[in-house]
Specification:
Layout lengths: L1 H13 L27 E2 L6 E2 L1 H4 L16 E6 L9 E6 L2 E6 L7 E5 L3 E7 L6 E6 L2 E6 L5 H24 L3
Antiparallel strand pairs: 1-2, 3-4, 4-5, 5-6, 7-8, 8-9
């Protein structure tokens, strides 16, 4: 934990914030802050890593996403890999689904209001697995870039989970 606290304090110092004397037991372990009521913390792979929405929005590709006031991230995924020529991002908020497929320099986030989403599904492919969103009469497809087998498996898991999360949110919202 001492190394994690050291890294956290290095970030806090660079941002002009007060240093912490101990690793946070509550709140975001990336910035050391406790988010406002109603703003979730995202659990990492291990229980002592938690991230707030503000920190998520500092990381690529989420740093390019601008959320309207009142939108709260409920789930997010990406797989920014240094050797790829393009990346993707998926963000689900309490009001919309956001998809990002970079093709530098023309990349931008696409916003799909949840009220328009009818279904979400995962479509497997050896080279281009995809998340397929039915929004009104349109079908929107997010394909991940080809890569090594282990990276493609990670992408498949992200896309499967995205489809499940979107279907769950749509059913909770009564669409």
């Amino acid at each position: 934990m001492a190394i994690l606290l050291q890294e956290l304090n290095k970030r806090r110092k660079s941002e002009g914030r007060a240093l912490l004397s101990e690793y946070p037991q509550v709140g975001c372990t990336s910035c050391g802050e406790v988010p406002e009521s109603g703003i979730p913390l995202f659990q990492g792979k291990v229980d002592y890593i938690r991230t707030c929405q503000n920190c998520v929005l500092k990381w690529f590709p989420f740093s390019r996403l601008r959320l309207p006031a009142g939108e709260i991230i409920t789930w997010y995924r990406s797989n920014p890999t240094f050797h790829r020529t393009s990346d993707y991002g998926i963000v689900l908020t309490n009001h919309a689904l956001y998809l990002y497929k970079s093709f530098w320099p023309f990349a931008k986030w696409q916003r799909i209001p949840l009220a328009e989403v009818r279904d979400a599904s995962f479509r497997d492919s050896r080279l281009f697995p995809a998340l397929q969103i039915q929004a009104g009469s349109k079908i929107i497809v997010l394909r991940t870039p080809p890569d090594y087998a282990d990276e493609m498996q990670f992408d498949r898991q992200n896309l499967k989970e995205a489809a499940e999360q979107v279907r769950g949110m749509v059913s909770r919202n009564g669409a």
